[in-house]
Structures are given as structure tokens and as C-alpha cells.
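Lab notebook, bench 4. The sequencing result for the construct came back, and we need a structural model before the next group meeting so we can plan mutations. Quick request posted to the team channel:

Model the 3D structure of this chain.
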Amino acid sequence: MRIRTALRGAVVVALAAALTACAGLPTSGPVGIGLPVGAVEADSPFTERASSPIAGAGPEVIVAGFLEASITPTDNWAIAKEFLTPEFADTWRPGAGVTIDVAGSRTYASSVDTAEELESANAADVDVDLDQRASVDADGRYTEAGGGTELDFQLARGEDGEWRISSAPDGIVLDEGSFQQVYSRYSLQYFDQSWRHLVPDVRWYPRGSNVATSITQAVIEGTPSDWLEPAVHTAFPADVLLDGNSVPVSEQIASVALTDAALSLDAATLARMRTQLERSLTATGVTEVSFTVNGSALETDEAGLAGDGGDVSTIVLTEDGFGSLVGGEVTPIAGITDPLRQFQDPITAIDLAQGEGLAAVQVSTGVVFAITNSKANELDSRPGLVKPSIDPYGFIWSVPAGDPQELHAWTEDVTPHDVADAWPEASAISALRVSTDGVRIAALVTIGGRQSVVTAVILRDESNVPTGLGPTHEVVELSAPAHGLVWSGSDSLGILAKGEDAALRTQIVGGPGSEQTAPTGSVSFAGAKSQAGLRILGSDGTLYAPRASAWQEFFSGVLVLGTRAGY
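Done. Here's the predicted structure in C-alpha cell form:
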């Protein structure tokens, strides 16, 4: 009879000795402001070191020790392989993926349950039940995947009397806290259709490995994630491959050997290849990529890219007017500030385009206007509109909260463009934001009665006019109602739950999320290129900025906290 346990008496004592030899990093405590959201610290060789199998350990302890050894990826998980039979160690594939579970959720059930059975048995089965939160596939793609999961293990007793695993699922298992200690995120970069913007595709690779090689192989020979693929492409032609199995890095320069097909490429293609790969390798500390063919260097330039607006000042509306908040003063914005003074209805939202020549404004009646060249044009008066968002091509996006499929992209001269296939699964939408690259749109939608954060790519014609959205990609299902959404860096989103229990969730698109308390009474917020640029507005008009693990009062008397296009 199998008795499922979290690990009983003697097993607990044995397992304690089998756990890591190093103390772990903190997984709780106050939230701090560190690297910009979307940035990754250069890969560190440090990883925790698991312990080898304990002599005389039973099947459950061996399985538990094997799972714990997932925290040490050194030499392709060499320590974890010590828990396997020699034959199985040759075929087990740790790189097949990662199962991410809730810490402390694992329970074990063994077919060999009593001391008498353990003494006489030469084979055993151990089932492990766990509460899964997410998974990472063999290509490093992270997916939310909640629910109970069972893993089955078979063990055999060797001639030396020691139990070893003879069958197990490919891949490794890590709890939520350990995952981000063992794995780091990296953003592979792909071009949009204009070849002027790079779009991030987040992947996860184990620390201490040759990450530069993994990233280079993925960029040159891999494909973007399915939801991104309709709107992005790579600069690398299909017949250009990596020549060899490694990418050496010296003095922050990655030397990338390519096959002979690269010799026939034109200068523009080579420049795009170099730029795409350099940007993909940035988080590893690489600052330059050098291509070679048969040992000879290929001369390459860098491709020109469109700017993303950079980190610029906060924009606010006060009793004194609208403008940029610099040095404690509100500085008017030419062609935008004066028309705002003419509105009779209270203004509730302002989105300012890159270059500051266009603004989308919503008033208390819900109507959306375009302001440019000191003129205000009424764009959209449909009932129940959510806050508008401007893309880098000057289109203003609007949609009724109760009809997500009626998404429009407007030009400033009041020309609407219907956007096909907008969130067909959704019954409601409460927020949308177009990314700074103009390729991705994020939204807070209701699907099947549950609120989720979703993304999709924007499909455009040859003139960059929006024509439709790609398939809906669910980033995360929310457990509590959210009311605001912004881009926070290039690959993360900020999600705000307002009110007395206000909270700010930072959610990686293609990764886990984290939460921190927001100021009490938070009513709106504005995204930025870095986490330090985030701003939250309280119901009393106080503006807050992040400082260390808390929020500091930044300014007061704010009526509307404006947003900048793309964030």
C-alpha cells in the first residue's frame, strides 16, 4: 500500500543532509528597486551546489535528492546524474525543459513502503505530486501552467545495495524561488517589418552555462515564439548557419563562425545580422559581435534603428496646465498644452506621442480627441471607451470596454481603421497599451469570466497601417481585479490594482511576475523605460516615485498623470 507523504520522519532527516551545501538567496522580504525592468545582470558563474546521494538512502530520499540537485546545472547537471543508474544517466535529457512548482508542495508515494519491503525489494516506483506554476520548454520559453502534476520515477537497487533512478521524466524540477537563482532571462531580438525596430522574445537559460552559445544558436537557427512570428523576422537567411558548437567570448567580443553562405550576403543584411545578434547578447556582457567564415573576418557595420523615446520627464495636468515635470515645475508642451485649456469637460487621460507632437485625450464623457498643431479633433465618441494608446506611427487606438472586437486605430485627421481579429475570445476589456516598437499590444481582458493579461502582435500593411491582430497570447491570469496596465521596459508589464489594498504587479512577458504594495488610494500610473521611471498617482493628487523598497512623494496637486506612447 502506498502512503503519500510530504516526507516522513526518517526520510526528512535524511533529506535534510541531502540538500544544498550552500545557503540560498532570500526569496522573501521587502521589494527593492534594482536593475531596470527588462534588464538582466551579466551572467554569473555562481550557482548553489547540491549534495551527492547519501549512502543507504531509500527510494523516496533518492528521488527527493535528485529533484533537489536541479539547482546545480554545472556540467550538464552532473550531480543530478549521480542519482541515476549509469545506463539511464546516458539517455536522460535535463535540458528538455523545466517544471516550476510551489515551494513545499511536493509529496512522495513509494511502492516500497515498509522496512521489510525495503529490505527485500530490488525495484521500486515513486510518484511525486506537486503544485505546478509554470514550465520552460527546451528552447527556453516560459509558460504559465497552474494545477496539480504527477511525476513518475522507477528505481533499481544496484549490486552495491544502493538505490538509483532507472526511469524519470526528461527535464528538471525547480520551485519558484530556486528557478530565478538557477536560470536567468535573456531577450532574443527580432526585427519588425520595417527593419527599424527590434522586438524582444524572452528566453530562460541556466546560469553557469555557455549562454552566449545558446543565444547565438537560437537567433541563427531557431524561430521566434509562435505568437510573435506573424509580425517579426530574423536577419539571418535560412542557409546561413553557425559553423561549430561554441561561441567564444573574449574582452566582451563574441566570435561567431558562420558557414560559407554568409560570403554572398550584402552589406545591409550583414549589418542587420550583427545588430540583431549584438542586441540579443547584451545581457551576457557582450558588446560586439565579430563574424568569420573559414577563419577570415567579415567586415560589417551596425544597422540603423529607430529611437524609442528614451527616459524622459513625467507629464502631468495640474490646475496650472499640462506639461513636463522638470525640477518641480510644469513646463508647457508646444501645440499641446494650450488646446487642453479649452476643454469644458474634465480631462481623465492623456497619452503623448514620441516627439510630443500628438496627444490622445479622453474626457469625463468618455470621448477621445486627437490634439496636434494646437488643434483638437474629436476622434471617437462610442460609449464606454477605455483609455486610448498611441503607437509609434501616430495611430490612436481605442476600443469600447464591453466590445473588445470593435478595436479601431485612428489617424489624427479622424480616419478610423478597423482592426480585425481583436481578442475574439474576450467578452470585456479594461485597458490596452501599444508597445514602443509598435509590434505588440497588451490588454487587460475578460475571458470566460476571468481577467487575464494578454498580448498580441499588430499586423500592418506596407504603409504600416494596422489591419489586424495576431493570435491572443495569455501572459498571466489574474487572481485579483486589475484596473491599469502599462509597459515597464521592453519586455515587462505593470499591472495596477487600485484602492485601499493597492498593489503593483510587474509581469515579465514570457516569465514570472512579482508584486509590491502600491500607495494607498492609487488611482492611475505611468510606465517608463526603466522601473525607476514608474509613477503612481494617489486619489488626493499626490504623485509617487519608487525609492528603494518604498514609494516616495514626488509631487502634489496633480489632476491627471499622463502617459508616454509605448509605455
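The CA atoms of residues 348 and 363 lie 5 Å apart.
Will bring this to the meeting.
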